């Protein structure tokens, strides 16, 4: 792999040096030839004028016309060069555009989504690394309920969310959404029904308002503000001099990790989806704000199936159902009280985190 890269990089370097050489030679040569031809015209024309064959005025006339022609002709060469470069680039772009997504929509009819989700003995292997991320995972969550998923890094939490959004298809087993296998749902409809907050919030170099409205094409200003209030980021936004018109990213200001996460949450809830997937998106938010957000969510997501991935018990304890993953397996499944009684990973995590909070 490394060697291959070195070979390709060296090849590209050599070619670029060659190109620079030719260009370094070509342009001075062109100017030189133009100069030489001018001198030639002057010399021969001068002689002829001296002999009385032509009038002196013919010489500048000729030079002016020839010079008017020289640059358009030179530019034709330059444009040809650019067209060739563009054609080569277009070929690469086309290669990329022609790739067919592995996940295809098989269903033309419209299939509304209510939000009941069942994992039935799901196994999942990432093809490129051969890592088995999920092993025999089964659980059910009814529409409108809240499920919390806890577990160490690498235990497969994000993978579960990605499978629900059908970014991948399961290797083995079934995912059932509202009585249908997930493959029998219209893919666009499924994804429209999902509000997904990824682990690393991605915001565009655009205004905060537009970043939130990305979740809903025709969102009004009021809807944007309502979503921001529910994500507890409205107060931060109005502190900026241009509030919702503040530009983010390269051309604008940088938000803190917690602010980014909350803008990203606002983007997900503005479209009032049937299914909300939160991938550890409260990690950079303090526990107090976290509680406020979760309380607001409860109000606006009464009929929304909500899955919250977290490594904090505080995000999970009020969920209707909690599952704990370890190395791709469901090791605990219940609610706060039953898992505390169970005295396993969850109970241990709870005790540890409560002690930390007391300190
Ligand atoms: N895109 C991917 N390609 C290959 N392997 C992956 C990919 N994403 C995650 N994995 C692997 O799958 C396992 C589960 O990952 P993940 O679901 O991201 O865990 P978690 O969200 O609990 O930290 C890990 O071993 C990880 O290395
Ligand atoms: Mg993850």
From TrEMBL:
Bilayer topology: Multi-pass membrane protein
Compartment list: Cell membrane
Bilayer-crossing regions: 24-44, 64-83
GO (cellular component) term, any one: plasma membrane
Chief location bin: membrane
Record key words, sorted: ATP-binding, Cell membrane, Membrane, Nucleotide-binding, Transmembrane, Transmembrane helix, Transport
Ranges of residues in domain ABC transporter: 117-352
MF annotations from Gene Ontology: ABC-type oligopeptide transporter activity; ATP binding; ATP hydrolysis activity
InterPro entries: AAA+_ATPase (IPR003593), ABC1_TM_dom (IPR011527), ABC1_TM_sf (IPR036640), ABC_transporter-like_ATP-bd (IPR003439), ABC_transporter-like_CS (IPR017871), P-loop_NTPase (IPR027417), Type_1_exporter (IPR039421)
Residues annotated as domain ABC transmembrane type-1: 1-85
Protein name per its UniProtKB record: ABC transporter transmembrane region
Organism field: Nonlabens ulvanivorans (Persicivirga ulvanivorans)
């Amino acid at each position: 792999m490394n060697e291959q890269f070195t070979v390709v990089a060296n090849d590209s370097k050599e070619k670029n040096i060659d190109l620079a050489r030719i260009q370094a030679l070509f342009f001075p040569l062109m100017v030189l030839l133009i100069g030489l031809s001018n001198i030639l015209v002057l010399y021969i024309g001068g002689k002829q004028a001296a002999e009385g064959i032509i009038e002196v005025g013919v010489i500048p006339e000729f030079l002016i016309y020839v010079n008017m022609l020289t640059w358009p002709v030179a530019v034709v060469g330059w444009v040809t060069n650019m067209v060739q470069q563009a054609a080569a680039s277009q070929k690469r772009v086309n290669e990329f555009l022609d790739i067919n997504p592995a996940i295809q929509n098989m269903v033309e009819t419209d299939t509304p989504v209510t939000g009941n989700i069942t994992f039935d003995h799901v196994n999942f292997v990432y093809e490129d690394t051969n890592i088995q991320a999920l092993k025999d995972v089964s659980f059910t969550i009814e529409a409108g309920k809240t499920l919390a998923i806890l577990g160490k890094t690498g235990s497969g939490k994000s993978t579960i969310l990605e499978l629900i959004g059908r970014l991948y298809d399961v290797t083995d087993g079934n995912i059932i959404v509202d009585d249908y296998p997930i493959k029998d749902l219209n893919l666009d409809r499924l994804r429209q029904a999902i509000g997904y907050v990824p682990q690393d919030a991605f915001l565009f170099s655009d205004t905060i308002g537009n970043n939130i409205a990305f979740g809903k094409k025709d969102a009004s200003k009021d809807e944007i503000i309502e979503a921001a209030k529910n994500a507890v980021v409205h107060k931060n936004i109005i502190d900026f001099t241009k509030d919702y018109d503040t530009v983010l990213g390269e051309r604008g200001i940088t938000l803190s990790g917690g602010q980014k996460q909350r803008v990203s949450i606002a983007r997900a809830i503005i479209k009032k989806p049937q299914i909300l997937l939160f991938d550890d998106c409260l990690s950079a938010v303090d526990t107090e704000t976290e509680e406020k957000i979760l309380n607001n969510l409860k109000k606006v997501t009464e009929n929304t199936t909500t899955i919250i991935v977290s490594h904090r018990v505080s995000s999970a304890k009020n969920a209707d159902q909690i599952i704990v993953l370890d190395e791709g397996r469901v090791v605990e499944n219940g609610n706060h009280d039953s898992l505390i009684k169970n005295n396993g990973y969850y109970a241990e995590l709870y005790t540890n985190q409560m002690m930390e909070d007391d300190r």
